[in-house]
Amino acid sequence: MEIIVWLLPIISGLADAASRGAIKLTKVHRLTLVAGGFFFALPYYMVWLMITGLPHVNPKFWIVIAVEVPLLAIANVMVVEAHRRSPLMIVAPMQTLLPILLLATTPIMGKLLYPSPLLVEWPTIFGGAGVMIAVSGLYCLNYQKNQSGLLASFRQLAIDPGLRFMCLVLVIFSITSNLDFLGFSYSNAPFFLAVVHGLTGLAAALTLLFYVSTGEVAIDEALPKGLTKAVVIYGFFIAFGVIPHIMAFKWISFVPYVIIGKRTGAVIFAVVIAFIIASLRRFEGRYASERENLAYRLIGITLMLAGMAIVIWLGKGSL
User: Is residue 318 part of a domain?
Assistant: First the structure.
């Protein structure tokens, strides 16, 4: 049973990686993609809700929703931008830093929200070692041939627009991952997902309408050809990325534990996707940058995954 439980976040990570591949391969406007994707994920939640039934909703649930919806909308728009501006091979492994951030945000939010369903734990000395290994992986990931200076790899974080977006996304996700657990605890999983994703899609759609009305976004840009296929596929992967993720919380109560499984699957599969799309002739070298400095990137990814595992399994107190 334990192995099956751990497969849930890993499966979630595979679907999450597929959604990021869909982002990379489509040209749909970022707000249209986010709004349509979240709307097309709703039917899956509604079927699940029909099976489980409507829950008793704690009043605190609506506070969680009010805080999470704007954060989730902003973060997902930035995710689209990050993956379109920078190679997937670089952006996706940045997700390995999320569990490290969660080791700080989960205890802090648990204390601030006391009494809270969040399990409060603080990292041990092993956590520092894991962080250093993950940071060394980040250095290798951004290593450029013939770079000048030891700090050149880290300066890449400030220069590369996709990496800047992803750093902000990770900070937001370190908060919303905990809010996911709280929202599910204050209602039930399908009800929470239907509400939070429905309102997030609505927020993105209303923002898009505003930009169209002001002329900042053209109608053809907001509603391009091939729109339906793109958002249906994106919505499918959103739903099947988040459903196993939320289900895993039933057995794994420590939020960073779930995230490490999800991010491990996401990073590994995203790297595979990046290499495939860079190799296929149909893209005519459009994504050739995915294969640049490949040896350093693979070393960096391995170190980041190892650091993340050490932080989670050795860098905290016992459950």
Answer: no
